[in-house]
Every structure is written in C-alpha cells, then in structure tokens.
Amino acid sequence: MKVHFKISDEKFFNNGKVILKSLPQIEEKFREALSKNGEISVTQRQTKNKTAYEGINAASLNKALRKCLDIESIKGETHVEHGVFYHTTKEGFDFSIYDENYNMARLYNYYQGAVGVLDGNKKIVDLYKKMGYEKNEWKKKIEAIQSKVAYNSDFIIDKEILTIVGELQFGNWALIYRDLFRLLDADSNPGIDFYIYITADEKLSKLLSANTVSFKQAQDVIGEYLSIIKTPIWLISLGVEEI
After folding, report:
1. Stretch 118-139: mean pLDDT, rounded?
2. Residues whose CB is less than 8 angstroms from the CB of residue 173 and which lie 6 or more positions away in sequence, other chains included
3. Least confident of 42-51, 78-87, 136-145, 225-234
4. CB count in 10 Å sphere of residue 70
5. Side-chain half-sphere of 163: how many Cα atoms within 13 Å?
6. pLDDT tens, position by position, 19-57
7. Model pLDDT, residue 238
8. Whole-angstrom distance between the N-terminal and C-terminal Cα of the chain?
9. Is residue 149's pLDDT more than 80?
10. At the N or C end, where does the chain have fewer CB atoms within 10 A?
C-alpha cells in the first residue's frame, strides 16, 4: 500500500523547542523526511469481538521510514559502548547525528588516552570493522592522532555539532520504558544534546496493534519521568494517508 507520511502532532520537553529552533537545517531535514511517500504492507487483524479489519505491518512501516531518513548526516542504527558511538547489528538508537571527529577522540582516549586499557594500542586497531573502515585506512587514522598527542595522553578537541539520537517506536507500549532507560544511560556517557522520539498517532496506532506505543502514551510517560530525564526532547506523532 502506498502512503504519505505526515506529522500529526508534536510535543516538546526540557526546552526541546528552543534547541530545535537553533538547528534549522536539522528541523528541515526531519520535517521533510517525515512528509515523504512510502510503501508499506497491510495485514489482517481482529478485534476482541472477532471483527476483522485491515491493519498495517509494523516491520514494513519501520523499513519505509528508515528509507525516508536515509539522508546525508543522519546515521542509522547506533549503539553506545564506553561512551563511543558504533554502527553494528547490536541494538541501539534507530538514528543519530554527531561529530565524528569528537567521537573518534573519545574512542582514542578510552583505549590509548591518559588512563587507557590493557593492550589498548592493539585493541583499538581491531575496531576497524565496527567503525566502518578498511583496516589500512583505520590504522592511518589512529596513527594521525598518535602523531598529535604524547604517549598515554588524551586527545582533546571541541565538539563542533550537537549530539542527536532518536527512535522510531511502533512496538509494544512497554518498550517506551526501555527506550527512556537507554537515553538516560547514554546521556551520562557520552552525553545526548537532543532526543527525537517518533511514534504513532491514535489512528496509526490502532492500525498497528491495540498495544502499540501511541503519541499520547509517550507524552504521558515522558511527562511522568521529567524529574530524572533532563535531555531536550522532540516527541513526534506520525500519521499515514493512503495515496
């Protein structure tokens, strides 16, 4: 089924609107990405009284939206280890935007910095696949940093762009608690400057499943935990229109 995606509603937390307005190019990219056309699969669902209706397959929805977000500077599946962003099959945030040089500095400091780890000089070279490089290219990148800093010293650089991560959540309503725990964990190390949470509006939620995270549920849960969640948040309600 061909559909047109649309932002049905939005809510900001922790001065999220202020942060977003300071990132006009980011805002434009996401609003444009979430206003594209896509193709999703339908499936038969039944209500408690056995009435069948045509619903939407969540996996196909996720796939279509990831395609919409396949834009330069927006990275896909991202997970955090030791305060560093990686891109492997390990579960993490659905998308991210961050300063790659700053991320590289954090990785170097963890393995070969002032504290470092045992055999860090060997372990850091073995990370080339996790970082998406060919081995020789990766070694040159490490050697370039080593030439700039003294042995067992941290590589200190300023972060040039804000760190942004986000989720596409169209699964069971309880998953929002897992998502927020992941945010809290990552916000302390390496630090998240802005969080984008995309979930279904009421109509789309019912087409996915009765137990799907909805915009209203997400709004209520985030509001409940604002005493511990300090990251600026842009909560987006996504809808679809058949075309």
Report:
1. 92
2. 211, 212, 213, 214, 217
3. 42-51
4. 12
5. 22
6. 999 999 999 999 999 999 999 998 877 666 667 778 899
7. 97
8. 8
9. yes
10. C
Instruction: Give the side-chain half-sphere CA count within 13 A for 55.
Output: 19
d(CA 147, CA 145): 5
Q: Which residue has the higher pLDDT, 96 or 73?
A: 96
pTM for this one?
0.93
Contact indicator for 178, 91 with CB cutoff of 8 Å: no
Query: What does the alpha-carbon distance between residue 97 and residue 192 come to, in Å, rounded to a whole number?
Result: 10
CA–CA gap between residue 15 and residue 4 (Å, rounded): 30
Model pLDDT, residue 46: 67
Contact status, residue 8 vs residue 239, Cβ threshold 8 Å = yes
Which residues make Cβ contacts (< 8 Å) with residue 187, sequence separation at least 6? 230, 231
- By C-alpha distance, which of 222, 224, 210 is closest to 172? 210
Q: Which amino acid is at 112?
A: Q
DSSP secondary structure of 24-81: HHHHHHHHHHTTSEEE--EEEEE-TT--EEEEE-HHHHHHHHHHHT--TT-B-SBEEE
Per residue in 175-199, pLDDT (tens digit) is 999 999 999 999 877 889 999 999 9
